[in-house]
């Protein structure tokens, strides 16, 4: 075989090995799934399941990061319309006062192989931080041995009636962001040493980049190298929370990335009977192998 032809064939082969198909990631707060409230009856649960399953069936995400999921069984039910979408982790965080399992857990599902997956609560000190994060380490395509870290988060809400509670919410979100930055560094430096090819943090942050809230959670993550997939999207085009009688719609849901390229995030129009949050969608370009 002529050297030029051989070189062209080898180049084509390695290009195929070094690239992977883009992945569609959906981030969605499914609002107390299933049921849309704490103590939903069977009929309410069934109606909510059908409405949300229709979204999964239509969109067929490769990665799903969901919040406000009741338990593993509920998440598996949500993923049922797409048999290739497998639950990887569902957290089991407990109420700090009663010790009972929260009905609002954080979950990650994937169509691509997962090397490891687990959930961790935030370290309690110096404050009583609610919940924590779920993490799935996605396997890179052969012959790469790297991983893509996919974190699911749901930071402290803005619930409160006075200045003291607002300050507490701010402090808790900032501390969660700081702990997340430390955890990512630990994964990169020790647990998956020299194998982390990208990081994704997706979820309901209960804050935004508009100066609406006094915390610095997004800025803390940004300084650690994570880029918000909303980019320069105008405020009115990224209001992921529908709002209610007391508060107007706003941006609560974000997808932050490091080491991977994504499309600009967009809201997915879904029926109002699915959730008080719109799903957020991005397309991820898997990093090339070295």
Offer a few descriptive terms.
alpha+beta; 6-stranded mixed β-sheet; 13 strands; 5 helices; globular; 290 residues; disordered N terminus; 7-stranded mixed β-sheet; Deoxyribonuclease I, Chain A
Describe the secondary-structure layout.
Blueprint: H1 3-18, E1 23-33, H2 42-59, E2 63-69, H3 72-79, E3 86-90, E4 105-110, E5 114-121, E6 132-139, E7 147-154, H4 163-191, E8 196-204, H5 217-223, E9 227-228, E10 253-258, E11 261-262, E12 266-267, E13 280-285
Parallel strand pairs: 1-2, 7-8
Antiparallel strand pairs: 1-13, 2-4, 3-4, 5-6, 6-7, 8-10, 9-10, 11-13, 12-13
Large-scale geometry: globular
User: How many β-strands, per DSSP?
Assistant: 13
- Overall pLDDT metric: 91
What would CATH call the class?
A: Alpha Beta
Indicate the CATH topology: Deoxyribonuclease I, Chain A
Low-confidence stretches: 2-18
The tally of helices reads: 5
Instruction: State which percent range the strand residues make up.
Output: 25-35%
Structural class comes to alpha+beta
The helix-strand sequence is HEHEHEEEEEHEHEEEEE
The rounded Rg comes to: 20 Å
Tell me what the CATH architecture is: 4-Layer Sandwich
Give the tally of structural domains: 1
* Major sheet attributes: 7 strands, mixed
CATH superfamily: Endonuclease/exonuclease/phosphatase
Report the oligomer.
single chain
């Amino acid at each position: 075989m002529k050297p030029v032809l051989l070189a062209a064939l080898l180049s084509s082969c390695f290009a195929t090995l070094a690239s992977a198909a883009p992945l569609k990631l959906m981030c969605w707060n499914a609002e107390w799934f299933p049921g849309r409230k704490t103590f939903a009856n069977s009929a309410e649960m069934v109606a909510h399941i059908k409405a949300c399953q229709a979204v999964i069936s239509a969109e067929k995400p490769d990665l799903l990061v969901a919040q406000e999921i009741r338990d593993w069984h509920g998440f598996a039910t949500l993923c049922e319309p797409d048999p290739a979408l497998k639950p990887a982790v569902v957290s089991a965080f407990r109420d700090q006062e009663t010790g009972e399992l929260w009905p609002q857990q954080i979950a990650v599902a994937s169509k691509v192989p997962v090397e490891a997956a687990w959930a961790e609560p935030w370290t309690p000190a110096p404050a009583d931080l609610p919940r924590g994060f779920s993490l799935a380490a996605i396997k890179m395509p052969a012959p790469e041995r790297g991983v893509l870290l996919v974190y699911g988060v749901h930071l402290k809400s803005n619930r409160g009636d006075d200045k003291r509670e607002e300050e507490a919410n701010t402090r808790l979100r900032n501390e969660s962001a700081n702990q997340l930055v430390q955890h990512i560094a630990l994964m990169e430096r020790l647990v998956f040493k020299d194998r982390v090819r990208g990081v994704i943090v997706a979820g309901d942050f209960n804050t935004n980049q508009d100066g609406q809230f006094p915390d610095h959670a997004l800025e803390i993550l940004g300084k650690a190298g994570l880029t918000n997939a909303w980019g320069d999207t105008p405020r009115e085009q990224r209001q992921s929370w529908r709002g209610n009688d007391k508060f107007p719609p706003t941006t609560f849901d974000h997808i932050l990335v490091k080491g991977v390229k994504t499309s600009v995030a967009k809201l997915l129009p879904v029926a109002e009977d699915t959730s008080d949050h719109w799903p957020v969608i991005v397309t991820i370009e898997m990093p090339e192998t070295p």
